[in-house]
Structure prediction request, 560 residues.
Amino acid sequence: MSPPEVHHLFHNPIVDHSFSADQSTLAVTRETTVELYSKVGDAFKLKDELKGHDKTVTSVDIAPQSGRIVTCSQDRNALVWEPSPTGYKPTLVLLRINRAATFVRWSPSETKFAVGSGDRVIAVCYFEEENDWWVSKHLKKPIRSTITSVAWHPNSVLLAAGSTDAHARVLSSFIKGVDPRPPAGVWGERLPFNTVCGEYLNNSAGWVHSVAFSPSGDSLAFAAHDSSITVVYPTGPDQPPRAVVTISSQMLPFKSLLWSAEDEIIAAGYDCEAFRFQGSEAGWQLTGTIESKGRPGLEQREESALNMFRQMDLKGKAKDDTQLKTVHQNTVTMIRPYETSGDRVTKFSSSGVDGRVVIWSA
Amino acid sequence: MSIIQQHTSATLSDAWRTINIDALTEDSSLNFDTSTLHPPQPEISEAEVRQLAGQVRQLLRGGDPEGALRGCLETPVYNGEDAAKDAHMQTIIEVLQSIKASDMSPLLKSIYGTEGGSECLDVLMKYIYKGMAAVHPGNASRSPTKDASQGFSQVGGRPGANEPATAAMSVLLSWHEKVVEVAGLGCIGRTMTDCRRV
Prediction:
């Protein structure tokens, strides 16, 4: 297992990051701008800044095929940045929301994206050729509070959303003329726009921080503020799910999770490191942390006696314990798949409040 | 008109800023009963709590503290009258006080290891916090200077009428420490997050 690749970009929190498909470009949010870094040798160098929002940028996503970047911000807008030879050209999207936009993700088909917001709606946006304009349709019912995260099903029609009303929901975002009719699956057969395919909450009903479909799209996992992860296995339309497995952990809550395989979930959050969960319908367990503790390079150097006494004199203690033992020195805000082989995620990337982006082997 | 007056009138005309716009939005959380978002909890009456307390005491006398603790943690009073809630807390505090300090950790570990054990410890944590909130030291109006002069010897026998309260608090504090050791910080997080209050 190779050691993690650590890139300390700056001293501001990174709330979201995204790699381009060839992994040469990295987009990270930094206050009201999105910074684009390109890979030079082993390091990432600042290449471009996307300035267009006038409030904190909350989310960024690069479409893997088209290379378009979508960003959203607390200024209630979303922008689509089109790559062109002279740089990125922003296009404003009509979201029609009057609270902050919180989360944005491209659908796998890249013809749509979904924007979660504090206005109790998810704006599903698509390009209208006639008007040359990005328009949105609102998923409203039965959302009662701010959307914290959204995730797309591989069929680009179903959308999972986590909310501060403690529910994780699966909704249909089918748009006539944009989407091909999806095949019937475990979530439902007929899926007109705003069909509610499932509504789940866990026992203690904490805020949902993150949602994700499994690689096959047949199960859903969500992480909530009660330090738990819940995995839902649906049976079919209008039937109760055949299994809902909740794992309450001893750790602090998880901010983000991803499926690295059908039987493995990786989650990271306020503990500043990533953890691995393994299991199936029959049950899930926390199997350990991704970081191998005591890696060379992070170990404490042997202190000289002089150094020790100097530290005692200056700081009143022999050891400098201002550093966490984890690679990230603050909350991990987002983890994303970085490299896949077959249907397994072999590498994933994480970004944190400490301004670091780290690439891990899963 | 002086600058100060101008400023005041400007501030007055800004009164619209304090309008709670959520009240005017039809489907905002202010106009919506958020408790309907969660499944309702079964109501537990005071009589049921008393009956359970009797069973728990019997288990305690029979030398089965683990069974006694489990018994009261498995039926928390989430929905019931205040009297029922208080009675149940009394039962739990009684059980906690009757368990020896050296038995705490093994007992908690064995509960945590069983199915539903994590949930039980979350409930225990809720009652520990509720207990801490309910223990009135009786002399809350005491001046802080006097408090400071007593230094670290607070837990030890302080002369006065509040000995039972102090004893109860020290029991709760040591249980709190042991529960966090076993169930982790996640347990505290769940206590704060949970919509089901005891």
Observations:
- Chain B has nine helices and no strands.
- Confidence is low (pLDDT under 50) at residues 138-160 of chain B.
- The radius of gyration of chain B is 23 Å.
- Chain B touches chain A at residues 27, 29, 32, 34, 37-38, 118-119, 122, 183-187, 189-190, 193-196 (CB under 8 Å).
